[in-house]
Specification:
The complex is a heterotrimer of chains A (292), B (326) and C (245). Chain A has 292 residues and is mainly alpha-helical. Chain A has a single domain, classed as Orthogonal Bundle (ABC transporter involved in vitamin B12 uptake, BtuC). Chain A is built from eleven helices and two strands; from the N terminus they run H-H-H-H-E-E-H-H-H-H-H-H-H. In chain A, helix 2 packs across helix 8. Chain B has 326 residues and is an all-alpha fold. Helix content of chain B is 75%, strand content 1%. Chain B is built from 15 helices and two strands. A two-stranded antiparallel sheet of chain B has the order 1-2. Chain B is globular and about 55 Å long. With 245 residues, chain C is an alpha/beta fold. Helix content of chain C is 39%, strand content 26%. Chain C contains ten helices and ten strands. In chain C, the strands form two sheets. In chain C, strands 6-7-8-3-9-10 form a six-stranded mixed beta sheet, with helices on both faces. In chain C, strands 2-1-4-5 form a four-stranded antiparallel beta sheet, with helices on one face. In chain C, strand 4 and strand 5 form a beta hairpin. Classes of the chains: A mainly alpha (292), B mainly alpha (326), C alpha/beta (245). Chains in contact: A-B, B-C. At the B-C interface, helix 7 and helix 8 of B face helix 2 and helix 3 of C.
């Protein structure tokens, strides 16, 4: 029983991180219709950013989320308005998929050249503390990661639901042409959405950095995780990302505990393929309707 | 007229390729061997991805499955002959196993379209790779051996140069036959608009499965020969994400869905990475990525597509010439 | 009594409780050009989708040449001889006009003459010979509609369902399309035409079926239909006097 509860707890923590790491991907997929294969790069870049801030000037990764988010927001905005926009206007949405794939290769190689191929970890002072609650044990750093992820997800959900910017994004996602005719600058909104997605990914990267080891090559896994989360939970909403992320975290934790740690990838993809076949729009469906 | 010309030209190229190892050193023979291997698989990928529009991000599963099948067949059945002939049964069985696996997998997975099919295939390759690696029966973790089929008096690079050259030719001829048949037209119509194709009487389901099985069988055969060429391999030698992705890149750069695109794209990319930049191994990914981005932004139809649209522009200027050609 | 090629008895289709087609009967005589008209949203396209098997029936039955069609997948119905030309053209964009038509010829009804001859015949009927080697991507709306007809004809159907082939065409193109449909019929293919352009419908059709809000409200020759008060009210609303009283 204790083992079961401990596994649930591990799954929850992992799931919170998966959710945050995937929500930007989900938003971009839902609003722009683009499957962004550069997404994992943003996550890993966030982790490397946190590593730099912590290693060079001793800033805590959780604080570093703010500058990292701002930088990645700018990078994401410019990237969408240039390369991705060019690819979409010249060829098609499929072309944009391939372009992001090419950029991901370049960026991964670039990160490897700058930071080397070694595995990195970030170890703030609270890394080695842990809490015990009866028989259950949890590292403080993991609880902090879960908390930070949930806070950021809630903030994003509020922004989308309550602000003018959020309404504009939702309108653009449902009917780009009508949104444009109602006076919204759709191109700009697409850039902002992409920037927001990149910032969320970067923030998650900073958190991931304190919980897990990472390398430049981890980006593939984080892109795939985001894709699986979206397929499980549904496209385009923080709630969908949360459901999908928690589910993925549970699958991961239970497979590692009860079947074998080396089979987690296999289990995740098995669930992915089954889900695609049974309910391709995810548990919560597409937040923006069937328009895509 | 054109047909005869193409046949003569083709024969000249084949003869030239057959004589080539006499002139170039072992290094370039190995590069050429890699080219034949990669181009053959790119063509096989293109039959599914290019003709029918179902992009697989996980074709490495058939390379790995082909190689491991061959090794296990030899291991279970014992040596099946000597020298080159010993390869025949394991290779054909490996192709058959890959084809069967694809046929079983096809029915559910080909109901997915676009990116969902692509990622699901990636998932399949990861799952199979991990199982082979972790289920001890497969011995993926510690690795398996395949006895060398190279006859005495021949160097391995020359031997596999001819084998892969022959396989490339086989794949190419199959691809031509498919493209010009009813089967090929069915695949093209599926790629362009699957629902409309069905409305016109195309049994889309059946043709998609046929393309998938054909593509998997060819890649499985190439994969098993690859296993022979390396001799000893583990999961990570043959189940490789970069194999899957390179096939797509080669086809993209040459021109997806065309007959010559996969060959040209493979030649260009291997020339850049293996010849021009052979000493700069640490930036290969950067170069490959940059090529992909440049191709999509500058010539979305790949090299073949760019050549064609130039020709089309020329035709529009001189309609008389276009009519004469038709 | 002429032979009936397609008949429906109590054809009904509902989507989650919303009834799109309710209890419609029809009999299409072989060799006719039959019209189907009705206001927007009357269920014309839904009816065609039921006949081609794109949607399953909720109730009733559709018989093609006396055989029940239920359970046949779309491509089987095409091979049996039902072809459809779409209102919103769905060409295979990257293929040439000839290749588009060839797909129809290759996979349509088995047997008959050589695919090559069928392709040429279909191109000739639609007047597309000069555009044959262009890709479908850059064609005008008028040419795309002709391509729809040519490609559907190339499957050698015995029944061609033409979904608003004249919508958005100018008068000259409409005239060409009407002639094209007549040629299709002359070659022995029954045509069932959905059309908004009343001039085109009444000039080309032998008989017309009118549906409104999913129900059959009239059937008859073009002259009878034009004079039918139910049809007039369905299209124009109730006459003013009656509303006043």
């Amino acid at each position: 029983m204790t083992l079961f509860l401990q596994t649930v707890l591990n799954g929850l923590v992992l799931g919170g991180i998966y959710s945050l790491a995937a929500v930007g991907f989900s938003l971009v997929f839902g609003v722009l219709g683009i499957v962004n294969l550069t997404h994992g790069i943003f996550v890993v870049a966030g982790a490397y950013g946190a590593l730099l801030f912590f290693g060079q000037i001793g800033i805590d990764p959780l604080v570093a989320i703010i500058p990292i988010g701002l930088v990645l927001f700018a990078v994401g905005y410019v990237y969408q308005r240039t390369i991705i926009q060019w690819a979409v206007s010249r060829a098609s949405l499929v072309a944009s998929l391939v372009v992001t794939f090419g950029v991901a290769m370049m960026a991964r190689n670039g990160l490897q050249l700058v930071f080397g191929p070694d595995v990195h970890t970030i170890t703030p002072a609270y890394s080695f503390m842990s809490l015990t609650l009866g028989p259950l044990r949890m590292d403080v750093v993991r609880l902090v990661a879960l908390g930070a992820s949930l806070v950021l997800l809630v903030v994003l959900a509020l922004v989308l639901a309550r602000t003018h910017f959020g309404r504009a994004i939702r309108a653009t996602a449902q009917q780009p042409l009508a949104a444009e005719l109602s006076g919204l600058n759709v191109r700009n909104l697409h850039g902002l959405t992409f920037g927001l997605g990149a910032a969320m990914a970067g923030a998650s990267g900073a958190i991931i950095g304190i919980v897990q080891p990472f390398t430049a090559a981890s980006e593939v896994a984080w892109t795939l995780n985001a894709f699986i989360v979206v397929v499980l939970g549904g496209i385009g909403s923080p709630a969908g990302a949360l459901v999908g992320g928690l589910l993925l975290g549970m699958i991961n934790a239970f497979t590692a505990q009860y079947i074998g740690p080396s089979l987690t990838q296999a289990a995740m993809f098995l669930v992915l393929v089954l889900m695609l076949l049974v309910r391709p729009s995810g548990l919560l469906g597409n937040a923006f309707g069937e328009s895509r | 007229m054109n047909r005869t010309l193409a046949l003569v030209l083709g024969a000249i190229i084949v003869i030239a390729a057959a004589l080539l190892p006499l002139w170039i050193g072992p290094f370039y023979t190995r590069v050429a061997q890699l080219f034949f291997f990669s181009a053959g698989m790119a063509i096989a990928w293109n039959i599914l991805g290019g003709f029918s529009g179902y992009w697989s991000f996980g074709h490495t599963v058939f390379i790995g499955m082909g190689a491991f099948s061959a090794a296990h067949i030899v291991h279970r059945l014992g040596p099946l002959g000597d020298g080159p002939l010993s390869m025949i049964v394991p290779i054909l069985l490996a192709g058959l196993i890959c084809g069967l696996f694809a046929a079983i997998l096809a029915y559910p997975i080909l109901r997915l379209r676009g990116i969902y099919f692509a990622i699901a295939m990636l998932g399949v390759s990861q799952v199979v790779g991990e199982l082979v690696n972790n289920v001890s029966w497969f011995q993926g973790g510690i690795g398996v051996f395949l006895q060398t089929p190279v006859p005495s008096g021949t160097t391995p690079e020359d031997f596999f140069y001819y084998i892969f050259g022959g396989l490339l030719l086989l794949c190419f001829l199959i691809s031509i036959a498919v493209r010009n048949s009813r089967f090929g037209y069915a695949l093209l119509s599926i790629r362009e608009d699957e629902d409309t194709a069905m409305m016109l009487g195309v049994a889309t389901e059946r043709y998609k499965i046929m393309a998938f099985v054909l593509s998997a069988t060819l890649v499985g055969i190439m994969g098993s020969v690859y296993g022979y060429s390396v001799g000893y391999f583990t999961t990570y030698t043959v189940f490789r994400l970069d194999f899957s992705l390179n096939l797509i890149v080669f086809c993209l750069i040459g021109g997806i869905g065309t007959l010559f695109g996969p060959i040209i794209g493979t030649a260009v990319m291997l020339f850049i990475t293996q010849v021009l930049l052979s000493r700069f191994l640490d930036i290969h990914l950067l170069i490959t990525g940059a090529m992909v981005v440049a191709i999509i932004l500058l010539m979305p139809g790949g090299i073949i597509g760019a050549l064609r649209s130039r020709k089309r522009q020329a035709n529009q200027v001189e309609p008389v010439e276009a009519e004469a050609r038709a | 009594m002429t032979e009936v090629i397609l008949s429906g008895r109590g054809v009904t289709k509902s989507f989650r409780g919303l009834t799109a087609i309710e209890n419609v009967d029809f009999e299409i005589p072989a060799g006719a050009i039959f019209g189907l008209i009705g206001p927007n949203g009357a269920g014309k396209s839904t009816l065609f989708n039921l006949i081609t098997g794109y949607y399953p029936l909720t109730g009733g039955e559709i018989r093609f040449k006396g055989e029940d069609t239920s359970g046949l997948p779309t491509y089987r119905r095409n091979q049996a001889g039902i072809a459809r030309a779409f209102q919103i053209s769905k060409p295979f964009p990257a293929l040439t006009v000839r290749e588009n038509v060839r797909v129809g010829a290759m996979f349509g009804r088995p047997g008959g003459s050589q695919p090559k001859n069928v392709v040429n015949e279909a191109l000739a009927i639609a007047g597309l010979e000069e555009l044959a080697d262009r890709t479908a991507e850059g064609l005008t709306v008028g040419s795309l509609r002709k391509l729809e007809i040519a490609r559907a004809y190339a499957t050698r159907p015995s029944l061609l369902l033409a979904d608003e082939p004249c919508a958005g065409l100018n008068p000259i193109e409409t005239e060409e399309m009407v002639n094209c449909l007549r040629k299709v019929r002359e070659r022995g293919t029954t045509v069932w035409l959905v059309e908004h352009d009343m001039k085109a419908v009444t000039s080309v059709c032998d008989r017309i079926l009118v549906i409104d809000a999913g129900q059959k409200i009239a059937e008859g020759t073009p002259q009878e239909i034009v004079a039918d008060p139910k049809v007039i009210s369905a299209y124009l609303g109730e006459p003013l006097e009656e509303q006043a009283s």
